């Protein structure tokens, strides 16, 4: 589980709670609980999202939230090592020897498994590249539905917060004209209730919807990077490239910092071997 997201949510709610009460005035929370405002903001956001997206998108919400709170399952270094291992095996025993090794992979590595089996079946390299690129395009299309859903909902929430505020202001001014004796007290109380919906809309958008959408987008980028490494590596294995050259080519997908850390760890390992000798 990715505890940073949970810690961030708890910290955000805690800071808001502290800002409202100061940890001493618990009665101040009553001013921030307004069920009509919640209905306008949350209900309106759901209603607009229903108009914008089919019901099938809503059915995916539990799975998407699960992805958002899980740790990253895709490590590019792990996939580089696996590709190099396959390349060494193919260089020693030929492409047909990779079938048994590929079938032994976990279900989580199904893309790598299917990619290896394509070259084992001696499919034309251009056809393999085309098929794998189509898989990546489908991945983009499928995953984009998730983060676009939350990003669009995050634009509806503040809008309905403002609509609720306008409704509150209209009602407040109408009541003020009817009862002019209440004066500033009625004006202040009515303004406070009217602004609650804006608070709810901003809170819903910026503490839940936008972060979840961004996390889904980030998880997609992490998965796509690993699958791009697989595509590049499998094509190189099929072409019979040297495993060392394949490894160097795939490391270009890593950021400079990650490549630097790996180089540094390699140097330390060599120094330790020399010192043992």
TrEMBL record:
Start and end residues of each stretch annotated as Disordered = 257-277
**What family, per the record?**
Belongs to the MotA family.
What is the predominant subcellular site recorded for this chain? membrane
Q: Per UniProt, which keywords does this protein have? A: Cell membrane, Membrane, Transmembrane, Transmembrane helix, Transport
Give the top-rank taxon of the lineage listed in the UniProt record for this protein.
Bacteria
The compartments listed are:
Cell membrane
Domain MotA/TolQ/ExbB proton channel residue range list? 108-223
Q: Which GO terms describe its biological process?
A: bacterial-type flagellum-dependent swarming motility; chemotaxis
Gene name of this polypeptide: pomA
Does Chloroplast appear among the keywords? no
The protein's name in its UniProt record: Chemotaxis protein PomA
Q: Which InterPro entries match?
A: Flag_MotA_CS, MotA-like, MotA_ExbB_proton_chnl
**Membrane topology recorded in Swiss-Prot or TrEMBL:** Multi-pass membrane protein
Membrane-spanning residues where? 7-29, 35-58, 155-174, 186-210
Query: What Pfam families does this protein's entry cite?
Result: MotA_ExbB
Respond yes or no to whether keyword Repeat is given for this record: no
Bias kind Basic residues: ranges = 268-277
Name the GO cellular-component terms: plasma membrane
Organismal lineage: Bacteria, Bacillati, Bacillota, Clostridia, Eubacteriales
**Where are the compositionally biased (Basic and acidic residues) regions?**
257-267
